[in-house]
Amino acid sequence: MAQLTFYGAVEGVTGSLYLLQTDKATLLLECGLFQGRREEEDANEKPLPFETSTIDAVVLSHAHLDHSGRLPLLVKSGYSGPIYMTRASSDLIEILLKDAASLQERDVEWENKRRRRAGKQEIEPLYRLEDVEATLDYCQGLRYHQRTNIADGVDIRFLDAGHILGSAIVELYINERGVEKKLVFSGDLGNCQAALLRDPEVVEEADILLLESTYGDRDHRSMEDTLQEFEDVIEEASANGGNILIPSFAVGRTQEILFRLGELYQAGKLRHQAIYLDSPMAIAVTEIYHRYQDIYNEEDKAVIDATSSTSRANQKSLHTFLPVLRYSTTTEESIALNKLESGAIIIAGSGMCNGGRIRHHLKHNLWRRQSHVIFVGFQAMGTSGRALVDGAEYFKIGGDEIAVRAAIHTMGGFSAHASRTQIIEWLGYFQGEKPRLFLVHGEEKAKLTLSEAIKKIGWHPEISHLGQKITF
User: How is 97-121 classified by DSSP, letter by letter?
Assistant: First the structure.
């Protein structure tokens, strides 16, 4: 019988890691970083909880680091087999893993300077850029719906999860002694209201289902209301002459915001002279989004194509849809934006304002009453962005304390995750005998709330725990 062991994203939302063992093969489903509070991230330093030499193949649902970020550590530990993902994920993962390695190397370099002065032993980063390069050699991109044999007795098929570009619902077909069983991992299901991407595809049958529960305790604000608020804020900023700052995440959220700004531009409702994407990482990701327009939803792709009809076909993109978009790539170009006192929309990372170029834009704009800051993503406790959302009167940047006079806005509808209602609707497509269901990727409250809601429609969910083993 096959055995599945839960090694991550079972007592929280990060560190996705599951080990599948059959009578002929051993597979790793996901290999993500633990992210968040220091005590959570410390788990990344622990040895991987299995023998690397036993793994025949790795399967990845999508490129976000909480699902992929320990892959270089796996390779550094000796793994040299295939890593399967969608084609778009294989392009995105290069950007995300290289960025993660660079940040780790930089942070360790600063920490080791302090340690040398204190006479303490120096430390090593979790992995380096050369480990990422080695990892990329093993990545294999597959098309959606392409059933592929990946190990003795195990086939895989990816369905579109609609969460970020390339995100997948993972179907694993396991054949033991002539009997086939199916394990489905939802990955991160997308928000059906979001732009560009398709709705999560339907699954109708499984023997085992691992279901994410990130927003299992809440529904999102309607996209109609969110977009109206977004338009109102931009109109207000246009009227009083201020800049708009949008701290944004490089993958997914930035591209959605660019599309929404493009809609306003095409409707004649965007009066700002220029929109600056001031994030080399987000720029690189946006270019990848351009290359994969074939997996956009048909409605938004048609809108982009129709308003770009005067351009050559290979130029139809968010750039032609939003002609006032400017890329700011170099440090010098980023610094030059600080001279702009009005008329600009600046999108920059990091999304929670703990680092990145957004911090020096905040330094030069927060104290201006005509400025606006729009938060389009979740702000975790303890982050600089959360402090602003919670009404901080002053903002510390380096040695400076900046008075917060700008208007602060939060847009609750721009989520890349399915809401509680959307998750339940997705479950409603299963036919016949219901699979054994395990809730993963959620905080305790979210899982418990979703569990109770699912019970009401005839399911019997189980809340997984760290180290749990099940056979099927």
Answer: HHHHHHHHHHHHHHHHHHHHHHTPP
